[in-house]
Design goal:
globular, mainly beta, 2 helices, single chain
Length: 142
């Protein structure tokens, strides 16, 4: 079972008009919907961690822009659930966490894989923030 952010935040069937940052290595991705709502995916930097998009499943912004948002959900995997080449020599530490976002539209799908690395003390989670134009409380964290 997964937690559908699109359904929770009343984003289903809204059209995607732009996507910025859908690139390997990106630390921020922003999806803009036709009603002006933005979905920001990022990690608030603390100190000794590095969080970024590690894989897009070969999807590009063009695969999703123009489509209606059908589903948008997250799953995550702690260190060890998936065998991947470690980048621990980069100085970020030994703890890795994979966070997956599956975005389905009427035009195409995207399976994002974010990689968070740290020394084990700092969070490596991805924040999803939904901001709606013209509302007093400008954004909601998912």
């Amino acid at each position: 079972m997964h937690n559908d952010i699109a359904e929770q935040k009343d984003l289903k069937l809204k059209q995607i008009v732009s996507i910025d940052g859908l690139d390997i290595g990106s630390e921020l991705m922003v999806i803009t919907l036709d009603d002006g709502t933005t979905i920001r995916m990022y990690h608030p930097q603390e100190c000794c961690e590095h969080v970024r998009i590690a894989d897009t499943g070969d999807a590009t912004a063009e695969d999703l822009v123009g489509g209606l948002l059908v589903e948008f959900y997250e799953t995550s995997s702690p260190n060890g659930d998936e065998e991947e080449e470690s980048e621990s020599d980069s100085g970020w530490g030994m703890v890795q966490q994979w966070t997956y976002y599956n975005i389905r539209t009427t035009k195409g799908d995207c399976n994002l894989r974010w990689l968070g690395e740290s020394n084990g003390y700092y969070s490596t989670g991805v924040t999803v923030r939904v901001s709606r134009p013209g509302t007093e409380e400008d954004s909601e964290e998912c």
